Amino acid sequence: MRRQAPEPPLPGRGLLVLAAILVGAALAAVLGPGATAPAGGSFQRAVGGLGLGGVAAPRWSFHSLDPRLAPSDETLCAPLPGRIFPNPDASSGVGRFPEARR
Amino acid sequence: MSPRIRELALMALADLARHTFRTAVVGACLAAALVPYLAGLAMVRGLEREARVSLAAGADLYVTGEAFGRTRPLDAAMAEAIRAVPGVERVAARITGRAYVGGALALVLGVEGPAAWPAVPRAGRGIEGPGEVLVGAEIARALSLSPRDLLTFPRDPAEVFTVAGVFPPAAGLWSRDAVVMGLGDAQDLFGRPGQVTEFLVWVRPGFADTVASRIRALNGIGSVRIQDRALVGALVEAGYGTSGGLFTALFWAAFACSVLAMWVVLGFSAGERGREVGLLKALGWYTEEVLALVALENGLSALLAASGSVVLAWLWVGPGRGAFLAPYFVRGLPPVPLAGLPYRFGPALLLAAVVLSETLVLTAALVPTWRLARRPPLEAGT
User: Fold this and answer.
1) For labelling, which of A43, B11, B56, B308 has a CA lying 20 to 30 Å from the CA of B5?
2) Which of B175, B307, B349 lies closest to A40 in CB terms?
3) Is the ipTM here above 0.95?
């Protein structure tokens, strides 16, 4: 009895496996438990809400940290154009708070 | 699946495997545009979510003093007068200040009611009495602090605090530079006994405007500024909408460049593609079949790139802490933060990545293939 020749391997099988792995990993990244970083709800409740803005520390202006604390940016020099200092919270290139230490 | 479609899919797969360089270059071009976009958008969504948590956990009204257009402290005794305003449910006095501690600038928080602290994740314990503080993760790292260590502020070295606990980075973005202490300790530290920086007021639903008017009219409170939850909520929405919008605009500029790059890359393989199309036409393939083969091949290539981009973006903002990207969204962070920014992925981001990749790759592949497939086989192959 003649033996049937084995089926040739599927070309690109490795690519198919890679695609399955990548799609599975992508689905896990967007739907899995790690898709969202935990938020600090209990800290916020304990302090009564703190922080809304684009900075994590009030190096220059409390307004950038949380507009509830300082409704305006005190580094603004309106009606003069520009600012008193190059406030890094407002996209300036300077990143250090130059206050003299006590 | 019909046998013909299955056959075309297998041929497309074999084509992709045969042209590994072309597949890799197309994937790299797409990933270069998609990964920063997806990572940035996930961070903007995470920051917005964290801000909304802060809003939801916060008070209905924030009352701060005002003088000469600048913020001034308030008399802590006014808490009783505010509490007596009809519609007010709860009032909390708070101090938010800043002070150097060991060379690092800390956000100093003086709060009432340390009973709430057991629920907050931390290493160590909560504040149990005067002279105890809780410190944020960045301050603890900068000063190598751990529970039971002693802490002094250069502005009042005589006052020694004990570190009761350290917040982990997961306690929240705005806890990282904080030093939390009792209200009396904060007043002593800043040399302002009997004063606070703001009152947090919780009111009955629908009473915010009335209560705000009554607080402004209180005797002895002076000039105040009052922020309410609805106003700040609108600010948050507008702010993060602008931030996300600007980032999306930058992405579309990069995306337009990558379209050009993709066309150039696919142009390099036009001769090869022409020979393939010419051969298939000579073998009797219809134009639709040639287009279907090319669409399957490039569709799979785009799916690979989109999925890979989502995984890389997640690795960047998660385990990679958003290195070099986080300071774009939160000013003053080091290039490699101690912990990453809050982020939020979701099916919408994966869908956006797949749709963008498929649109880009299929447009760049199908148009030249359609032109080639309409020519006579000998002409297409040359």
Assistant:
1) B308
2) B175
3) no
